[in-house]
User: Fold this.
Amino acid sequence: MTTDNNIYPIFDRMMTRADKENLLGQHSVMIWFTGLSGSGKSTIAIALERELHSRGIMCRILDGDNIRSGINNNLGFTAEDRMENIRRIAEISKLFVDTGIVTIAAFISPDEAMRKLACDIIGREDFIEVYVNTPLEVCEERDVKGLYAKARKGDIKNFTGISAPFEAPAHPDLCLDTSALSLKECVDRLLDLILKRIKK
Assistant:
């Protein structure tokens, strides 16, 4: 947090979140997917976005690779850079949520401290944590990006699930295992959870 005395935020003079939600005819929330690479986070997020769009709900996906190729392209994968990656994503997400947009984030976010940071920035009342808890062996079998094979060979250091730990959420709002549930079943369970919160 900055302590610069020359910064004068104008939040108190801007239109409010309620103004934006009234314009869009919806309530905004943050849907935060966490899970291993290859677990199905992005696939579910894309399907959910399409389903919400078809229902007239304004939403936006923030995905790990997209963010790292743009606003966070100066960050690596050290512990400090990963934390900063999540901090920036959370700040961006809060802007979307405050604009009345249902925001969908798909990031590994491998430990509780990262997810707590995101939740604290966005606000617990707006934060829906979805743990895509597909087993490691299934994620590795898929290896859609070829990353697990590289990590096993030592070509990728600090790779979550192989050479770096993943700390499962203790109390997620929803758990989805894509080795046991179809994509439609995953989306239907999400809709059951969130529609009542976002419909005005």
Remarks:
- The first strand starts at residue 30 and ends at 34.
- The beta strands are 30-34, 59-63, 102-106, 127-132, 174-176.
- The radius of gyration is 17 Å.
- DSSP finds eight helices and five strands in the chain.
